[in-house]
């Protein structure tokens, strides 16, 4: 129908071992989708070079948003991905033991700021 835009393609994502679940659009990185949903995955450069975000893809398929992500073919074949430059192409299950709730980190930062103000 003219004037109507298509709804975005969205896939369910699960982060193990915590069991957290959220949706990711096909046009955003898994890292960004996780953050928007309140979950922080380890990251640093966010451009696919530092490998801080390297994690295991337990199931599903991703595509990379850059031409040369910093991951070898052997690593990819073994199920490793870089979620900062990976977008979902299906439902995903990721193994990210160091994932954290954004609210938990925000609380820790606020407590650290309060302690710093005392000195
Ligand atoms: S955060 Fe650096 S490669 Fe993903």
TrEMBL record:
User: What does the similarity note say?
Assistant: Belongs to the 2Fe2S plant-type ferredoxin family.
Is-annotated flag, keyword Iron-sulfur? yes
Name used for this protein in its record: 2Fe-2S ferredoxin-type domain-containing protein
Q: In the UniProt record, does the keyword Calcium occur?
A: no
Q: Which UniProt keywords apply?
A: 2Fe-2S, Electron transport, Iron, Iron-sulfur, Metal-binding, Transport
Query: Which cofactors does the annotated protein need, by name?
Result: [2Fe-2S] cluster
PROSITE patterns assigned:
2FE2S_FER_2
For molecular function, the Gene Ontology terms on record are: 2 iron, 2 sulfur cluster binding; metal ion binding
Sorted alphabetically, which Pfam families does this protein's record hold? Answer: Fer2
Which species does this protein come from?
A: Pararobbsia silviterrae
Signal peptide per UniProt = none
Tell me where in this chain the 2Fe-2S ferredoxin-type domain is found.
11-100
């Amino acid at each position: 129908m003219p004037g109507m835009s298509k709804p975005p393609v969205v896939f369910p994502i699960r982060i193990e071992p915590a069991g957290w679940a959220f949706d990711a659009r096909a046009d955003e990185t898994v890292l960004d989708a996780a953050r928007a949903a309140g979950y922080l995955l380890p990251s640093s450069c966010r451009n696919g070079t530092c490998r801080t975000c390297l994690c295991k893809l337990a199931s599903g398929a991703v595509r990379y948003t850059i031409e040369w992500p910093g991951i070898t073919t052997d690593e990819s074949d073994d199920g490793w991905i870089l979620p900062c430059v990976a977008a979902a192409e299906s439902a995903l299950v990721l193994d990210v033991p160091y994932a954290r709730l954004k609210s938990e980190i925000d609380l820790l930062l606020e407590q650290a700021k309060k302690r710093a103000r005392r000195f």
